[in-house]
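Quick check before the chapter quiz. The format below is the same one you will see on the exam, so make sure you can read both the input and the output lines.
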Amino acid sequence: MAKRISLHEFQAGLARRLAEARDNRASALLAVQAGGRNWLVDLTEAGEILSVPPLAPVPLTQPWFRGLASVRGNLFSVVDFAVFHGEPPIAPAGHARLLLVGVRHGLNSALLVTRALGLRAIEDFIPVPAPADEDQPWIGDRLQDSRGSTWTRLKVSALLNHSRFLDAAHS
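Here is the expected output.
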């Protein structure tokens, strides 16, 4: 009988720890830098972060569309997130990384970022008032950390569904 109670307590404790881990993941943010801008991506929206593999260029595309990358045999479209926002291109070497963002939404899409800066907790930031940008609905809340750095939350779904992001063909 004592073993059954122990097993029950163990199962209850395990269920509680799994629920806490899910709650912590939902409040965790992945911090990345793209050009001169700091971005925060909800961990539930972020995919994998990888070193930049060789990119195959695609002709007649926008300058921000860097090409295709093969990730474990699957092709991913690669968008230079700095150029997408009007900044100079990111060199796909050194600290640069690919952030796979579209897999959860059924798109093999990746963002080329300057560097991955690790995980952050939402509690580490305070909101900064900023006007909404109707032309860029993927730009979420502006936040500030304890060092005074400004961060922007990325709304991945809004980015992936925006016509500008989806239209990589050079016009």
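If your answer matched, good. Residues 43 and 106 are 17 Å apart (CA to CA).
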